[in-house]
Design brief:
This protein is about 5% helix and about 40% strand. By secondary structure, it is mostly beta strands.
Length: about 150
Amino acid sequence: MQYTGQSILVHKKGGTVVDNLRILVNCLKCRKSLMNPDVQIDRLNAIHLFVKIGDKTGNLFLSQIYGSYNKRFDGIDDIEDAVVECSCPHCHNPLPFFERCSTCQAPVIGLGLQVGGIIKVCSRNGCKQHALEFEEIDHAFRLFQSQDDSHLA
């Protein structure tokens, strides 16, 4: 975890405290949930995005587990290394572009965390670059607290 003075960044480095976090997301534009109870990835509700690769469109379902790269394309081929244009399946607005990926230079897009904050992911299929970003320390605390099944928090 890194504090930048204005936000807290959590980068996935493998074997960290953020392994197995369940990430529930929404569209940053319309604020509707992107969680799809009809599709399961890693035995949990999938994150649903409308996608475009070249001139083909379809759906992408992602695992809600931070650090899991399990996914399923529907109606479109799973093309390794392709840059995937993602949009909200509700309002159809493209997901916002934040920066270029430090690994592959593809656009990094963002999804809102339901507890507050943003998850930023590389749009290149197969690139593993992603990070959680929180403007408020309380949002990070709520994410970790939401994972506690003991209900003591």
